[in-house]
Amino acid sequence: MVNNIKARLVRDVFFKSAICLFAFISLLPLFLILYYITKNGIAVINWDFLTSLPRPIGETGGGVFNAIVGTLILIVLSSVLSIPCGIAAGIYLAENKTGRLSNSIRLSVIVLQGTPSIVIGIIAYLWIVGPLKSFSALSGGIALAIMMLPVIVKTTEETLKLVPYHLKEASLALGVPYYRTLLKVVLPSGMSGILTGILLSVARITGETAPLLFTAFGNQFMNINIFKPIDSLPYRIFYYAMSPYPEWHSFAWGASFVLVVLTLSLNLIARGISAKWKIQF
Amino acid sequence: MENTVLTVEGFSACFGDQKILHNVDLTVQKNVVAALMGPSGCGKTTLIRCINRMHELIPGASVSGKMSLLNEDIYAMQPIILRRKVGMVFQKPNPFPTMSIYENVVAGYKLNGIKMPKSEMDGIVEQSLRKAALWNEVKDTLHRKGTFLSGGQQQRLCIARALAMNPEIILFDEPTSALDPKSTAQIEELFVELKKSVTMLLVTHNIGQAARVSDFTAFIYLGKLIEFGPTEKMFTVPKDKLTEEYLTGKFG
Prior knowledge:
Strand content of chain A: under 5%
Radius of gyration of chain A: 24 Å
Shape of chain A: globular
Radius of gyration of chain B: 18 Å
CATH topology of chain A: MetI-like fold
Number of strands of chain B: 10
Structural class of chain B: alpha/beta
CATH superfamily of chain B: P-loop containing nucleotide triphosphate hydrolases
Largest sheet of chain B: 6 strands, mixed
Largest interface: A-B, 22 and 29 residues
CATH architecture of chain B: 3-Layer(aba) Sandwich
Oligomer: heterodimer
Strand content of chain B: 25-35%
Number of domains of chain B: 1
CATH topology of chain B: Rossmann fold
Helix content of chain B: 25-40%
Number of helices of chain A: 12
Helix content of chain A: over 70%
Shape of chain B: globular
């Protein structure tokens, strides 16, 4: 018996250390990526890099100002397009748990989530770039909005499902019409979850390159017209990294650093919101 | 009759094919507490949920028969108008977690978009909280979230929320079954105070509670109204054998 217990304790220790080891291994890539990007990128980060435009081949210097502005414009465009649709679809799903329409929306959301981003880029190219006969920020925004949509729909649905039915009952029993109950009781109760979902989906599309290649295309000049090609951070990284010039390579690292800081802070804000605004039912 | 608040005539309710209530007749006078008692699943909750038409929100639910509030046919009224005249307090305290105590009390006005001067609103809040015997405990923390209160306080907040709308009748769906004995006693005391100003219908599976607080008691069993009459009479000389067996604890 005593031997048996010893063997169990040994197995216990072995199992615990195995878990720790694998957890460590899975964290390793993240820290290595952050380390390399910071190490190579931080050197080129200065005011000039952040506020100047890319320069032509042969000139030294240049920066990513247009790419930062472009990325922000793309985020705003895709958010404006996807947030209302996504939240509305999420509300519909949470309110209608069964039914043919709900099931088909749920299936489409899953399929959409699994669609490769390059395919979404090509679709946006066929739908928007073709008819408008020009690459444009608008088409990029639409492609990114399609990518954001499933995340927003899913998180809205999941959060609203957690809002207890008795709150809805309380509101309805006060004679509050159904639509006002949804807008004033159910939605505010799930707000932190929905906001978190939106920020996470924004963080996800901020780094997307593939759908932008066929749509927003990239632009080495400053552009704020949504019907013209526009630059973005991922595209700028791609462009700088593909060049044969060492200085541009370091610019690619710098732009990567900016991008990583942007997505990381979006994720941290999302965590903060979900922790702070969380409502206890 | 002048004093009748609620009349129910030949009322039946179903979920799909399953009949929950059979041919119920009931009359409730003004300013009384009427208790509905019976074993679990006998249909007493369904009956009060038919009065404010919450029953019909469940898919597959249907009703037949007549119900009227102050001689107005309940099933001919707009549900949202009806529900402002019929307050409801649920089994589990359910203050709105996004709102402060103050906002919870006037939630019926705020959520319905009814505007009024702040002084008038302050008055409603104080009056309702006083009636619900909660004012002294929360008057300094009116702008804190309602969910910080204890279970019993939350339930009295919900009562204040129902009272704020000045309803003709308030429906209580086992309001004390989620509360500790002390909070239960507080709420039972409240009923006696409240019936001066409002009519109350109380669903309970606690025979003692029905005896303590109600003026009239209805005994419902398997969806049928077995007996309805003054509480004192029913508890001393029940007319029906089933009632007697239930009251003496032979079943239920």
